[in-house]
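Methods, example record. To illustrate the input and output format used throughout this study, we show the complete record for DUF4398 domain-containing protein. The sequence lines were provided to the predictor; the line carrying structure tokens was produced by it.
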Amino acid sequence: MHATRPFRFRLVACLLLILAAAMFSGCSARINHWEDTDPKVLLAEKVKHSKYAYLRYAEAEEEAKRDGNPQAAERYRQAKEKALAEYNRAEQDLAGYQARQHAAKSAK
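The corresponding predicted structure is encoded as:
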């Protein structure tokens, strides 16, 4: 019984120390200082991820066709079309943002 008390005390002390270190190091749920919040960067990342998703689904569709699995090929085709629509929408959003930024700079 006496051997577990120092262990519990150390465990509680370590957990409190970790919690205090997280609070004082700026690791909070409110603000992520490591994430870029520039809308241009976020929109460009969305375009990039949508493009890669489209390419992955296109590749998976081709593999399913080669494997002779028409059901999987159809599912991948549908997912590819959705990813293409998302890619086009993300590109339009980025182009619109860039146009607004250019218009704001030229108005100054």
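Annotations derived from this record:
The mean pLDDT is 85.
Residues 70-107 form the longest helix (38 residues).
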